[in-house]
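User: C-alpha cells for both sequences below?

Assistant:
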Amino acid sequence: MRKADIVTKVADLTGVPKVDVLVTLEAFFKEVKNSLKAGENVYVRGFGSFITKKRAQKVGRIIKRNQSIVIPEHYIPAFKPAKTFADAVKKGRPAGSPEPVDESDDDE
C-alpha cells in the first residue's frame, strides 16, 4: 500500500476530501520527523512508537580501496509496534504471502 492508497482509503471511510487527508497525513509525517530530530519519541496508543535508536561506533570497510574507516556513533529512526497492533498482525496473514506448506510425509 502506498501513500496515495492510504489517502484514498481514509477519504472514502471518512468522507473528508482527499486533499485535506493528504495535507493532514503530510503534517503528521513532518511532526514525527521533527520530534525525532529533536530527540523526542512519538507514542501513538494502540498503534506504536516512533523512536530513535543509538548505533555504537564501529569499524567499516571500503572494499574497493581495501581501507578501514571508523563509523561514528549515530541515531537512526525506528518503529516499535504496540502489543495490540502486533497481535492483530500475527492473527491475520498478509496479502501476497505464500500459503503455509504442509511438511508432513504422506508416503508412510
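Moving on to the next sequence.
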Amino acid sequence: MTTARGIAERLEDKRICIVAGSGGVGKTTASAALALGLAATGKRVAVVTIDPARRLADALGLEQLGNEPRLVDPALLDANGVEMRGELWAMMLDPKATFDGLIDKLAPDERTRDDVLGNRIYAQLSSAIAGSQEFSAVAKLYELDRDGDYDAIVLDTPPSRNALDFLDAPDRLTDFFEGRALKLFLVPTGIAARVLGAGTSVVFGILKKLTGVNLLDDVSILFRAMGGLIDGFRERATAVKALLADPGTTFLIVASPEREPVAEAIFFRQKLREARMPFGGLIVNRVAVLDEDEDADLIAIRAALRDELGDALATKVAQSAADLQLLASRNAEAIERLKAAFDEPEPIVVPRLDGELQDLDGLLVLYGMLTSC
C-alpha cells in the first residue's frame, strides 16, 4: 500500500505542493493537515488558500487571514499536543491585491505604476481579466518561493476544473496583453484610428456629459500604460510556467468516492499528464470502510437483535447495516476506477469521520490518518 509515509517521502524534497480536486472533497483541511505535518517535522511552511468559506482561518484559530502569511501561534499548537519543531504560516489569497502588487513590481517607473493603479477602468478590469485570479494565485506562489522564506508552500486550490486554469493562466494573460483589442488602443492607426476618433469618441462623449467622467481618456491611459508592462508580464508568465513544471513542485489530487468528484479527479489527472506537470499522489477522502465484523450476515444481525430490540427496531438496524455495506461496496468500486485511471496502485484512503473537521483538533485527526502507516 502507498502509505502516508510514502506521500511524506514524495513531499520531502518539494518546495511547493498544489492540492487540487473538486469542491466539497476536503481540500482545505487536507492542505492544512499536510502543512501542519510538514511544519511539525521542522520545516517553515506556508499554507495558502483561496477558499472563500474561510474555513482554514477557523481551523487554525486565526480570526482572519490576509494576503500575507501569518504565523500560527505555537502555543495554540502546543496546547493541542502538537510538538512543533518548525513554523506554520497561513494566508488567504486576495487576487486583486496580488495583481496590484504585480503591477507595482513590473511597472518600469512610478508614473506607469500610478497611471495603472489609479485608473478607474483598471479597478474593474483587474478583477475581470480572464485568468487573473488563477494567475494571481500562482504569481503569489512564485513570489513566496522567490523570497525564500519558506521551506515548503502548500496551496489549497479552487474546484479542479477551475484549478486547470492554473496551467493555462500564464498564457491566457499574456495573450490578453498581446491581443488585437489592446493593440488597437496602444497604436490606433488606419481604420482603428478613425473608429476611435469618430463613433467611439461620440459614445464616450455622451457618457462624459451624463457622468462627468472621461472614460475614453481613462481607457486610453490605461492601455498605453499597460503596454509598458507587456514584457514584464511575458517574462513573469514564463517564470510561473517553469515553476509549475519544476521538479520542486508537485500536485496532489484529493477526491471523494462519489461519481462527480471521481470524474473530475480523473479529468484533472489527464490534464496534468498532457501538460507534463509533476504528480505527487492521490488522496481519497470520506470513504465508507467496513471493519471485518461489520461485513456480517444481515439476517443473522436481525435475528440476534430481535429479542432485545423488538422486530421493528432490529429490522431498521439490519437495514442500516445493509445500506452501509452497499455504500462501502460502491466506494470500493470508485477507488478501483481511480486506481486504474491514475495508474496509482494504492492511493491514500481516509475513512469517513463524524462531523466536519473545522478546528485544530479535526486537523490533527486528519493529519494522524495521513501520517499513519
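User: Anything stand out in the second?

Assistant: Confidence is low (pLDDT under 50) at residues 1-5, 186-214.
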